[in-house]
Amino acid sequence: MEEEVWLSTTPPCPKSVKISLDDNCQFKCSFCVNSTQTTKPQMPWGTFTRLIDELVANGTEEIGLFFIGEPMLAKRLEGAIRYCKRAGIEYVFITTNGALATPDRLLPLMRAGLNSIKFSYNYTNGRQLREVAHVPEKIFENLVFNIKEARRIRDENGFDCGIYASSIKFDGEQQKRMEEAVEIIKPFVDEHYWLPQYSFGAQTDFGEQVLGNPGRLANLREPLPCWTIFKEGHVTASGSVALCCFDVHNKWCAGNINDTTFMEAWHSPKAQELRKAHLEKNARGTACENCAHGVGQGIGTKKGSYIKVTRVATT
């Protein structure tokens, strides 16, 4: 019965919402959705607090302070965590590329009440990180160091903060190298899990095309109906309420909180029409066609790298 409540063209306010405080990222991975954004705004503080107040009033329990950009770049990340906790949010979490998650940065975040940090760990070594993300090779060593230090800070201070890492699961030699790289950080995280290659409707260099956003490999979901447009909210730093966790150029924008409320956007005619297509398991002719049915060439294709079309997941 509870699932039926969510599988509606006008579902309740999502229990979990991801909010981008800053759409910038210091990594320049061409396969990531961030690389396709032409503007990289920062969310005004008043917009953020108003959004949190509305979400709490409508039953949201979890807030992810990340979406399009790298959360560690947000200057008011610590204040945002504190505001969420004071407003009554039970669980505040972030996903980070880890390069800026230094001990000095993490300590105040955990002290403010951060409940979970997940490191996106998708490179085998510094050379590969440089080739794909266009940052210095030493950043890989910094990332590994920061993961280890996160565990130390959490344990020494008794903070209630889970430490996780996820990696995209590839095929062949790339996967073997990734497994070796994962062994380096596994003792320092509470859990490491594998994600499929989110191909967004295009073929990848490693493995089969993946339809939709199936979640973790250990608990895959069907591509239709896609759980994200029914049960999880996403808001960019510019205020767009996105119906897709891989939003590109506002293609899945249901409305903007600078012009309307979150709930009005969540139940907008555009959102209802898209959900109706998902409930009928026929997303052809919608913005979800490539992803859900594998039609067309997808977007963001890059050749000459270890990834052709792979979306770094926020799941």
Which tags fit this structure?
34% helix; 9-stranded mixed sheet; 315 residues; single chain; alpha/beta; 13% strand; globular
> Low-confidence runs (pLDDT<50, min 5 residues)?
200-207, 297-315
Output mean pLDDT: 87
Structural class label:
alpha/beta
Q: Could you tell me the strand content as a percent range? A: 5-15%
What's the total helix number? 11
End-to-end separation: 25 Å
Shape designation? globular
Helix-strand topology string: HEHEHEHEHHEHEHEEEHHH
For the largest sheet, list the strands in their spatial order: 6-5-4-3-2-1-7-8-9
Radius of gyration: 19 Å
Number of strands: 9
**Main pleated sheet:** 9 strands, mixed
Question: Helicity, in percent?
Answer: 25-40%
Summarize this entry quickly:
By secondary structure, this protein is α/β, with parallel strands linked by helices. Helices cover about 35% and strands about 15% of the residues.
Helix and strand topology:
Layout: H1 2-6, E1 16-19, H2 45-57, E2 62-64, H3 77-87, E3 91-96, H4 103-112, E4 116-120, H5 126-133, H6 138-157, E5 162-168, H7 172-185, E6 191-195, H8 228-231, E7 232-235, E8 240-242, E9 253-256, H9 262-266, H10 269-279, H11 289-293
Parallel strand pairs: 1-2, 1-7, 2-3, 3-4, 4-5, 5-6
Antiparallel strand pairs: 7-8, 8-9
Would you kindly provide a written description of the structure presented here, covering whatever features stand out?
The chain is α/β, with parallel strands linked by helices. 34% of the residues lie in helices and 13% in strands. It is built from eleven helices and nine strands. It has a nine-stranded mixed β-sheet with strand order 6-5-4-3-2-1-7-8-9. Strand 1, helix 2 and strand 2 form a beta-alpha-beta unit. The radius of gyration is 19 Å and the shape is globular. The two termini are 25 Å apart.
